[in-house]
């Protein structure tokens, strides 16, 4: 299948390569001419055969709105745009409505997998009309992990980004729990080899997970996390999850506290927030502040 990919950063670039490795033709555009296949969006659209599919992988907010608006002027009836960035779900309907005026479909795709997705595959949570999702299924099948899991058509427009928002809220809570356990053992006189304990948990325990594997990997590189500051950003989706809990009157104490802990990280360093910073770096390639 042929696909246009807008945004060839850490995620978009690897997604393009995974698709190409599986026999798909991807025409990529990025502001960096060193990685871009075309000079601009107009050339990208001209390189695609109809009905066209264009995947947008740029920062949420203004950059995504601008890109969708420009594509609305360039694409034709029957084409489909996918927003695979971390957009807030409330942005999706306005984008879908704008494109629908010109007969262009819209699919929102929450994407998880970080820098490991190239080899392991990307978990995809998508929202949109059945016919638009069906048009993209060869791409989704190539991007997702092998096997039965890793893809869901979660509902109509907005459902994909909503599911990804909740996914990230859960991620916040899990990371915080692992980090607090690490910090407690670091302070204890009882445990003399904290990294070995974390490594032992990777098999046979009810808390084993990929995040735990990544914490083990981080501790192999820096057993006391001495080279990492405990400053942790929040990407927005954690905040949106908590806001949605407030709107719907659903208690989210773990997610809320993990979000507030990230705010606390902007204060003097703690072992807890160093561990969270290390985990974000391991699974997503997010920058860490070095001592």
Automatic annotation (TrEMBL):
Keyword Metal-binding: no
Keywords: Gluconate utilization, Oxidoreductase
InterPro entries listed in its UniProt record: 6-PGluconate_DH-like_C_sf, 6DGDH_YqeC, 6PGD_dom2, 6PGDH_C, 6PGDH_NADP-bd, 6PGdom_BS, NAD(P)-bd_dom_sf, Pgluconate_DH
Highest taxon of the lineage: Bacteria
PANTHER family tied to this protein: 6-PHOSPHOGLUCONATE DEHYDROGENASE
Family per record: Belongs to the 6-phosphogluconate dehydrogenase family.
UniProt-recorded name of the protein: Phosphogluconate dehydrogenase (NAD(+)-dependent, decarboxylating)
């Amino acid at each position: 299948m042929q696909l246009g990919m807008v945004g060839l950063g850490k995620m978009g670039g690897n997604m393009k390569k995974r698709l190409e490795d599986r026999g798909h033709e991807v025409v990529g555009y990025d502001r960096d001419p060193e990685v871009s296949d075309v000079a601009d969006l107009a050339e990208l659209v001209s390189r695609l055969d109809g009905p066209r599919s264009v995947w947008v992988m740029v920062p949420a907010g203004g950059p995504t709105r601008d890109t969708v608006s420009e594509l609305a002027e360039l694409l034709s009836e029957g084409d489909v745009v996918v927003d695979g960035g971390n957009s807030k779900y409330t942005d999706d309907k306005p984008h879908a409505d704008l494109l629908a005026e010109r007969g262009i479909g819209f699919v929102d795709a929450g994407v998880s997998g970080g820098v490991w997705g190239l080899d392991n595959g990307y978990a995809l949570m998508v929202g949109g009309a059945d016919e638009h999702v069906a048009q993209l299924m060869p791409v989704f099948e190539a991007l997702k992990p092998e096997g039965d899991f890793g893809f869901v058509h979660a509902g109509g427009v907005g459902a994909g980004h909503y599911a990804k928002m909740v996914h990230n809220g859960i991620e916040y809570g899990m990371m915080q729990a692992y980090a607090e356990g690490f910090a407690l053992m670091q302070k204890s006189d009882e445990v003399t080899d904290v990294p070995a304990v974390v490594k032992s948990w990777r098999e046979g325990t009810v808390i084993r997970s990929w995040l735990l594997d990544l914490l083990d990997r981080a501790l192999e590189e820096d057993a006391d996390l001495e080279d990492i500051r405990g400053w942790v950003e929040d990407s927005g989706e954690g905040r949106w999850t908590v806001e949605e809990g407030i709107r719907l009157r659903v208690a989210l104490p773990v997610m809320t506290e993990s979000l507030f802990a990230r705010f606390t990280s902007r204060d003097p360093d703690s072992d807890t927030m160093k561990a969270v910073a290390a985990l974000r770096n391991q699974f997503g390639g997010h920058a860490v502040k070095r001592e």
